[in-house]
Write a structure and sequence with these properties.
There is one protein chain. By secondary structure, the protein is α/β, with parallel strands linked by helices. The chain folds into two domains: 56 residues, Signal recognition particle alu RNA binding heterodimer, srp9/1, CATH 3.30.720; 55 residues, 2,3-Dihydroxybiphenyl 1,2-Dioxygenase, domain 1, CATH 3.10.180. Helices cover 19% and strands 41% of the residues. The strands form two sheets. It has a four-stranded mixed sheet, covered by helices on one side. Strand 2 and strand 3 form a beta hairpin.
C-alpha cells in the first residue's frame, strides 16, 4: 500500500487570514473547512493540499520544514508576496539556482526559488 503525501499542514493563529494570503499567493482554491481548519488545493484529483490549523500559541523560532515555491521570476514573485503581506527574510544563491526566504503574515518561512542567472 505505501505512503503518499496528501497534506502539508501549517499551524496558525488566524486560519481565514492565512487562507486568504496563501490562496492569493499560490492561486489555489479553498476546498473545505471545519472549525479551526481549512485547506487549499488545485481542483485536480490526487493533488497535494496545503492545510491550516488554528493553534493558540504564536510561532516561535525557525520552521523545521517549509514550502519551496518555484518560478521563472523570483524577484517579481517575491515583490508580489510582499504586497500580499509577506516579508523578505534573506537571499541565497548556489551556482545557477537562487532563492529568497520569505515569511508569511504570521512568520512562517517559505522560499521563492528559480534557476538561471542570479537576478540581484
Amino acid at each position: 500500500m505505501g505512503l503518499r503525501h496528501v497534506f502539508t499542514v501549517i499551524d496558525c493563529n488566524d486560519v481565514e487570514a492565512q487562507v486568504s494570503f496563501w490562496s492569493a499567493l499560490t492561486g489555489l482554491d479553498k476546498l473545505g473547512e471545519a472549525p479551526g481548519y481549512a485547506w487549499l488545493s488545485p481542483q485536480v484529483e490526487g493533488a497535494s493540499v496545503i492545510a491550516f490549523q488554528e493553534v493558540p500559541e504564536a510561532k516561535s523560532g525557525k520552521n523545521r520544514v517549509h514550502l519551496d515555491l518555484h518560478t521563472d521570476d523570483v524577484l517579481s514573485e517575491a515583490a508580489r508576496a510582499t504586497q500580499l503581506g509577506a516579508s523578505e527574510v534573506e537571499r541565497h544563491a548556489w551556482d545557477d539556482f537562487h532563492w529568497i526566504v520569505m515569511a508569511d503574515p504570521e512568520g512562517n518561512e517559505f522560499c521563492i526559488a528559480g534557476g538561471g542567472a542570479k537576478p540581484w
